[in-house]
Specification:
Elements: E1 5-6, E2 10-12, H1 18-36, H2 44-82, H3 85-88, H4 94-103, H5 107-115, H6 121-134, H7 146-150, H8 152-166, E3 177-178, E4 181-183, H9 184-196
Length: 197
């Protein structure tokens, strides 16, 4: 039996820097292996540090853009429930929908994310929200402390926890809500097919 309330679709844009990040991290890994084997010039540790920081920065940017998509969806969900006479009185806030997405992921969304090869999506989503709660646009890399970049994921975890706890968030009832997940290109095709009917 379908859930009585269909939330706005969650549309995720492709992670355009994924290849760059993977490439930077692979290069850093190779440089580290050479360094451990005693190969390479004396300056190699500095090059390795720069490559690792560049890879971390690329990861942070990817998560920030996922966070931008997630925040757009959270706002749409609050608007959707605010317009419904049955749901308005429940007082749902953005944190309610974040907890639904992360803590009670609908099975069809879980299955689709796994088909995409995204298995640790709860951590990706929470960190994306944590990063976007700190930055609306990616700061230039030189503005970020190297220690922040090295451990950005820990800062993102704490930022998510702070953001989550900042609003009193009534929980969504399990089975009462469903949501469709789309990649941006996939959603464009879906709309095109709807318009052609």
């Amino acid at each position: 039996m379908p859930a009585p309330y269909q939330l706005p679709p969650l549309i995720l844009h492709p992670f355009t820097d994924a290849a760059t990040s993977a490439e930077v991290l692979q290069t850093a890994k190779e440089a580290a292996e050479k360094l451990l084997e005693g190969e390479g010039p004396e300056s190699q540790p500095d090059q390795l540090r720069r490559r690792v920081l560049s890879g971390r920065y690329a990861e942070l940017k990817m998560l920030l853009f996922v966070g931008k998509d997630l925040f757009r969806w959270l706002e749409q969900c609050v608007d959707f429930t605010g317009r419904s006479p049955e749901l308005h009185s429940r007082g749902y806030v953005e944190q309610s929908f974040a907890e639904f997405l992360i803590g009670h992921t609908p099975p069809e969304m879980d299955a689709k994310l796994r088909r995409w090869g995204v298995h640790d999506y709860t951590r990706i989503f929470s960190r994306s929200i944590g990063i976007y709660a700190q930055f609306q646009e990616p700061p230039e890399q030189p503005l970020l402390q190297p220690d922040y970049l090295r451990h950005y994921y820990r800062f993102a975890d704490y930022a998510y926890a702070c953001w989550r706890d900042a609003g009193k968030s009534p929980a969504l009832s399990a089975g009462e809500f469903s949501v469709a997940l789309f990649a941006s290109g996939e959603y464009s095709k879906f709309l095109e097919e709807q318009w052609q009917r």
